[in-house]
Design brief:
Radius of gyration: 20 Å
Shape: elongated
Order of helices and strands: EEEHHHHEEHH
Number of strands: 5
Helix content: 40-55%
Distance between the termini: 23 Å
Number of helices: 6
Length: about 140
């Protein structure tokens, strides 16, 4: 759920390297370690573009979402639905992730406040027991 991808490459038995373990297809082949040092492959313009595309290809619905900062559209391999506006690229797990983020928002906010005050975020357990947040 990071903003950018590109650090989960695959090296096949023959030395071929692909951009991601979910994209082992010819169009994502970056090179071969027998021909090019792995560091050059992983920092190649093609791999950098692959990593940035995760964020730059988000549909408008995702970019407007209040929880985009948390999921960043999740994995592009799961973006095969259309948005409510008919735009391609909505993650099929979006509805579930959104429900989860709504469910945990109050507790996460409380833990953030605890951290900002120099306190342990585990205090959330007592807070939940005492306050019974609406979402939990």
């Amino acid at each position: 759920m990071s903003k950018y991808c590109g650090h989960a490459a695959v090296i096949e038995h023959n030395g071929d390297i692909y951009s991601c373990d979910h994209f082992v297809f010819p169009e994502y082949r970056l090179g071969n370690i027998h021909d090019t040092p792995i560091i050059n492959i992983m920092y190649s313009p093609e791999q950098r573009a692959f990593g940035r595309a995760k964020h730059t290809s988000l549909p408008r619905q995702c970019r407007r979402c209040k929880y985009e900062f948390a999921c960043h559209g999740e994995c592009p391999r799961n973006r095969f639905l259309t948005t409510e506006d008919g735009e391609a690229g909505l993650n099929y797990l979006c509805e579930g992730y959104y429900a989860f983020f709504v469910h945990v928002a109050e507790a996460m906010d409380y833990m953030r406040e605890q951290l900002e005050l120099g306190r342990a975020p585990k205090n959330v357990m007592q807070w939940i027991a005492n306050n019974k947040p609406k979402s939990l």
